[in-house]
Amino acid sequence: MPARDTGRLVAAMQGGCLCGAVRFELTEPFGAVVHCHCTSCKKLSGGGGTTNGRLATEAIRVLEGEELLRTFQPADGKAKTFCSVCGSNLFGAGWPDSEASAVRLTALDDAAGQEPQVHIFVRSIAEWETLPEDGLPRFDERPS
Q: Fewest C-beta in 10 Å: which of 22, 72, 73, 144?
C-alpha cells in the first residue's frame, strides 16, 4: 500500500537490520524527523544519539523476522526495539504499544529526502561532542 505525502503518492519506505533477518516497511510518511541526543539514545547507538522519523505505529509493518524482535524498556524512558540476532536498533518511542513510534533512519534502505528538522535533548551533549552548525533549532528537552 503506497503512502500519501501532501496529496501525491510515494512508494512505501523499507528497511531492516544489519543481518537482514528483520525487514519492515512504512506505509505513511514521517510526521517529523529529529536528531535525539538523550542519554538513552546515546547509549543505545554507541554515539552522539539517534536520528528518528516519527509516525503512527500502525504505519510500521514488519515483513520478516518479527519473532527476532526484542524490546527493552528502560526505567526512565520509552521502549526500544532491536534485532536479537545482530543487535540493530530499529524502533523506539514505545513501539509497538504506543500510538506513535520512532524509526531509526539508519535502518532505512534509502533515507533520501528525510531531512531532520530539530535537535532534541541537547542538554545531554558531552563536553567533547560538537553539534554541527546545520541551522536546525535546538532544545534541551522534547518541545511540546
A: 144
User: What pLDDT is recorded for position 6?
Assistant: 39
> How would you label 39-62 residue by residue, b for 16+ Cβ within 10 Å and e otherwise?
ebbbebbeebbbbbbebebebbeb
- Rounded to the nearest 5°, which phi and psi values hold at 58? -65, -15
Q: Please, are residues 70 and 86 in contact by the beta-carbon 8 Å criterion?
A: no
- β partners of residue 77: none
8-10 and 13-16 beta bridge pairing: unpaired
Q: Kindly report, residue by residue over 4-57, the tens digit of the pLDDT.
A: 443 333 568 999 999 999 999 999 999 999 999 998 889 888 888 999 999 999
DSSP state of 109: S
DSSP characters over 36-89:
E--HHHHHHHTSS-EEEEEEEGGGEEEEE-GGGEEEE--SSS--EEEETTT--E
- Residue 49 near residue 42 (C-beta atoms within 8 A): yes
What architecture is domain 3-124?
A: Beta Complex (2.170)
